[in-house]
Design goal:
With 256 residues, the protein is α/β, with parallel strands linked by helices. The protein has 9 helices and 10 strands. The chain has a single domain, classed as Rossmann fold (3-Layer(aba) Sandwich), CATH 3.40.50. The strands form 2 sheets. Strands 6-7-8-3-9-10 form a 6-stranded mixed β-sheet, sandwiched between helices. A 4-stranded antiparallel β-sheet has the order 2-1-4-5, with helices on one face. Helix 5 links the parallel strand 7 and strand 8. The structure holds adenosine-5'-diphosphate.
């Protein structure tokens, strides 16, 4: 008989992972772990492997070397899929004639939930609850293509949240948002993280504000340059020598 032991185990555990596209290694010997409630800012220059790491975490790619487990079970296990919410950077397919309603788009976030197929009313309630959480219940029956960029972004955030994921992965989520919506969006993430202990990985280029939102920094440049709390990063003479004091200051300026 299998006994599930409740422990404060890692929700993400990456050990010695490398990845190569056509024999060109783009991630090398990556090891890190996350615990429930961690809010990790994933940063690094263009081409440093951030998206590849996200694809590995989502199970879209398999590592060339090393092991990866999510929620204590091996990489790519189907039952994990609805425990991860993913918000991609760009929503490519939208045009004003796209024929889906907001409710339909948000329901897509429940598709991985195969054991819920028969629970249509439960799914509808989850969609309604999530639209309400984001303050867009009035858009429910609108066609997605008829909405503004900021409204569409909220719909996709709703799709990422509708399955009540334990881990949210967000790829440059705020680029299309106006300042007010952006602030609300990060406020919502903060509440999910603090009140519901949803763990978050936020991919961003915004070095100047990553420390305002995230509690940990993962700086990637093919390898892990730094992983840890912001105060460790900010106090590290080694990081000052790697980044130069002014870049370190940009990352740290809200963490004095
Ligand atoms: P980032 O998200 O940090 O910009 P990526 O993970 O997209 O970095 O890319 C890391 C490296 O892998 C880059 O050199 C990029 O050109 C290369 N790369 C990304 N996707 C592919 C692909 N599908 N085929 C070949 N090379 C790729």
């Amino acid at each position: 008989m299998r006994i599930d032991v409740i422990s404060i185990s890692d929700i993400v555990s990456v050990s010695g992972v490398s990845y190569a596209y056509n024999a060109v290694e783009v991630l090398s010997d990556i090891s890190f772990s996350m615990q429930q409630g961690d809010y990790v800012g994933l940063v690094g220059p263009n081409g440093s492997g951030k998206s590849t790491l996200i694809r590995l975490l989502l199970g879209l790619l398999a590592p060339s070397k090393g092991t990866l487990s999510i929620f204590g079970s091996p990489h790519r296990e189907l039952r994990n899929w609805n425990r991860i919410g993913y918000l991609p950077q760009k929503i490519h397919f939208l045009n004003p004639h796209f024929p889906s309603t907001v409710a339909e788009i948000v329901s897509l976030g429940l598709v991985a939930n195969s054991d819920r197929k028969s629970r249509a009313s439960e799914n509808r309630q989850a969609v309604d609850r999530t639209l309400e959480l984001l303050g867009i219940e009035d858009l429910k029956k609108k066609l997605i293509g008829s909405l503004s960029g900021g409204q569409q972004q909220r719909v996709f955030i709703a799709r990422a949240l509708v399955s009540s994921p334990e881990l949210l992965i967000l790829d440059e989520p705020a680029t299309a948002l106006d300042p007010g919506t952006r602030e609300n969006f990060f406020g919502l993430l903060h509440d999910l993280n603090h009140q519901q202990r949803v763990s978050i990985i936020l991919v961003t280029h915004d070095l100047g504000s990553v420390g305002v939102f995230a509690s940990k920094l993962l700086y990637l440049d093919k390898k892990i340059v730094f992983y840890g709390n912001f105060d460790e990063f900010c106090k590290s003479d080694h990081m000052a020598s790697v980044f130069g004091p002014s870049s370190q200051h940009i990352i740290c300026h809200k963490h004095d």
